[in-house]
Amino acid sequence: STNMDDIDKLMAGEQADMLWIDPPYNADNDNVDDSAFRNFLRDLFSNCTAVMKAGSPFYIAHADSEGYNFRGAAQESGLDVKQCLIWVNNSIAFGRQDHHWQHEPILYGWKPGAAHKWYGEFNKSTVIDEQPKVNDLDRSELMNLVRELRNTLATTVIREDKPKANGDHPTMKPIRLIGLHLKNSTRRGDVVIDFCGGSGSTLIACEKLGRKARLCELSPTYAQVIVERWQEFTGK
């Protein structure tokens, strides 16, 4: 992800319409000193910026404890941070801090140089049109409908359940979360980059919505997870 030669091979002359990325949070096994982590983020985001079209939106998942470095590195690499979105999930991270974590922030903005694209609607009437069928829905379907209604308004707060813990990846992001951002910021056929591929959720979200995903992943183990998730999802 920090090697531009690898990025050039991946992109093959294409430019990205959007960035969705979930870099390491500088915790546990990934922990390095503050300066080294800031430099890593700057190199990573600079490579992202280099292959993004002007006006391309970005979504950067991160830890609040490293917010200073994430925001600073994004700005230093040419990205214009506009808002911080809050992902409220169904899992509480118990620890020794005064307040237990139940959210993750996501930086949102775009690469300067052109007007950014926004395709989201503030009131999705398609959900309201389905209201007469409510009596026919089971509990799971009703819960999904409530979730859709809560996310109907394009606010800075997003409610989406965290994937259940599994052996594929410790910080797997929900496909629906990424899909919501894809719908708001891209159209079918657009190129979406994620240079910290992780579990491959960005790839699956793009596959579901007809976007073109371009991923990098350093770990051979997680690269294999990405391939296997794609194969399972597509049957190919």
Automatic annotation (TrEMBL):
Signal peptide: none annotated. One of its GO terms (biological process) is methylation. PROSITE patterns: N6_MTASE. This is DNA methylase N-4/N-6 domain-containing protein. Transmembrane segments: none annotated. Keywords: Methyltransferase, Transferase. Residues 17-227 form the DNA methylase N-4/N-6 domain. InterPro entries: DNA_methylase_N4/N6, DNA_methylase_N6_adenine_CS, RM_Methyltransferase, SAM-dependent_MTases_sf. One of its GO terms (molecular function) is N-methyltransferase activity. Belongs to the N(4)/N(6)-methyltransferase family. Pfam families: N6_N4_Mtase. It comes from marine metagenome.
